[in-house]
Amino acid sequence: MNEEIKQKIKERYEQELNKGERFWPDSIFKDVIVSLGIFIVLVLLATFIGVANEPKADPSDTSYLPRPEWYFLFLFKFLALYGQIPVIDKIEWLATVLVPSLGIALLTFLPLLDKSPYRHYSRRIFALTVMGTIVLDMVLLTIMASLPVPPDADELAVSTTLQTIGGLWIPAALLTILVVIYAFKRSLYWESTRRNVPLWVTVAGAAMMVAMTAAVSIRAAAYPKPEEAEVPSTLVDQIVAGQDLYSVQCVECHGDDGSVAVIEGVEGLEGEKITPINSRDVLYTITDGAMYEVIAYGRPNAGMPPFGKTYGGELSRSEIDYIILFMRYTWDDRFEAPVIPELFPPLAEGEVPSYDVHIAPIVKRYCVSCHRAGKENNDYLMTSYEEILTTGENVEKNIIAGDMNSYLLQVIQGHEIVNEKGEVIIGVMPPKTKLKANVVDAFIRWIMNGMPKTAEDAAALSVMPEATPAP
Amino acid sequence: MWKKIFDWLDERLGLNDLYNTLLDRPEPRGNWWNTLGSASLFLFVLQGLTGIFLTIYYTPSPDHAYDSIQYIMEGVAFGWLIRGIHHWGASLMVLVVFIHMLRVFVTASYKYPRELTWFIGIGLLLATIGMGFTGYLLPWNQRSYWATTVGTQIAGTAPLIGEFILKALRGGPDLSALTLQRFFSAHIWIIPAILMALIGIHLYLIIKHGESHFPKKDE
Ligand code: HEM
User: Fold this and answer.
1) Where are the beta strands (DSSP E) in A305-454?
2) A291-345: per-residue pLDDT in tens?
3) Ligand 1 binding residues, C-beta < 6 A
4) CATH H-level, domain A235-331: superfamily
5) pTM of the entire structure?
6) Contact status, residue A442 vs residue A352, Cβ threshold 8 Å
7) Which of A27, A200, A349, A400 is 20 to 30 Å from A45 by CA-CA measure?
């Protein structure tokens, strides 16, 4: 750049300064308003959305789908789509290293590459269309990356193809056209009458990219939503989560309250003597860290299977931690338990319980430990509403709306089911403990009123006495 | 009385000179897009303040990191607010810095005499992203653990030096206590120090050359 042009630029700037404002207070005023606005937005976000609670890191859980922070999603998606290109997809570093480095290098040396002294938009169509295309693609790739995963292989193929076209091929073609025009027919960018050509090419390409992304998003809207497991955040929630897990995984050997000293009714361990795990002998001498290992690794030689995912069990790090919290806060007299809410909200006179609010937590606590896949239970699974109503060898008789003779109601009230030959086909349930009266009552009311699923359905069936106005 | 104190201080600190050079500067007619640089600065300061508060309780070890964050969220008065601001502020800072860069690009403010301001700016953009990357691991939850595993893996695919980069980032073949310690140190000392130095130069250059004006049709 020669001195003359530099001089011109300086003079022009002086003129603008003379027509301008003062940094203090004019510019600062705007800055303060924007910063204050940002601060308010942050406080609102922190208060009303907060930070999503995640389970603790678990190096053994390799099934976890990694999700980077949102501003890396576009790169993530780019790499995934790049993997779809035949031949060069084998040379990984082209996409992981070369393309990003090239991008950063171009951006960095922009002032050296773009030497023209012109600043107005009309004279920078090339720079603006290229940057516009790249930024739009980054936005679209981010959107694609945050869509739910297609449910089956066919849909996955369709979705990936659309994404590759919209997120990779069209922008690549568009950039190539822009660069080719620049290299061979630069005048198209300058002459004001024909400047429209690169602009319209860009608009058309951008429209196609957006259309592809829209198509992918519309398809994705119909996918089944992945179930977001709630992560317990408060101590109380964690203890309750621990108790539910304990009920499912541990009661058959250690009993409801950890007091079992001689195991009964477990194949291969019948009559095995163990130290009750609710005793001080166990709780005072085993630290949290050691307890974690006992549960994760089990005591395979003595008969306790491993539960940690590292050793082939079902429980994640956090889940084992919750169980330990439950054990400490309920049995260890050095810990003072916080107030634990009831398993389900108490039922009022005439109120009908629902599956969602009442029966699900009860079943999880008292029945699922045996009534899930892989256990002996007459094929009666109880992990969801549908399973409870539609599985089991005696599925027609287990649950009959409005019938007190339903097998389920009989067995939980201590009456075995006997067949014509006088053999017991279903013993009392749960086999070793007795349910509390309010739990039995909830089951009876639920079945007698037709097994409503949601709280609304149950409320519609309830015959509540007129609410007495508060005094 | 106040005037006397002011005069005394002014004589030794040069308050009036400061006022004249830093604040009472002429500027071209401003535009709301020009507030994004100072908004980035504001977010940097805010992240610094909330971050310092978080280090009081945060413990950078795989055994305690997760629980210390839980404690900040549940046990410490207004801990959730401070962490919430730091969490969202990080996202917003990346966004604001990026849009600030876009506006500088669109108005072609990187041209003579502000090329150096742009170079420093790229450093700032990369450092800001680096803050996001290193900070993401610190809560040591599933999300952060696996995102960092994949992120460092990607860096490790570089030809020839990939292996070295991977080991340097992780402090070993796998993510471990060393990785966490390393990321923590980068997040609270190394990158902020770089950011602060770069911001200093950035601001000096901006004052030296003045804010650019919005280009007119003939420029
Ligand atoms: C932590 C990040 C950053 C901070 C705190 C920051 C701060 C600022 C401030 C306060 C200004 C003056 C006000 C304004 O124009 O908005 C400014 C201008 C500028 N920034 Fe940044 N900036 C950051 C990142 C960047 C990045 C990523 C770039 C580009 C790569 C950049 C390039 C520039 C340029 C060229 C100017 C001069 C603009 C003009 O004179 O019109 N900055 N920056």
Assistant:
1) 417-418, 424-426
2) 999 999 999 898 899 998 888 888 888 899 999 999 999 999 888 878 888 888 8
3) B 34, 36-38, 40-41, 44, 97, 100-101, 104, 109-110, 114, 117-118, 121-122, 124-125, 128, 199, 202, 206, 211-212
4) Cytochrome c-like domain (1.10.760.10)
5) 0.77
6) no
7) A27
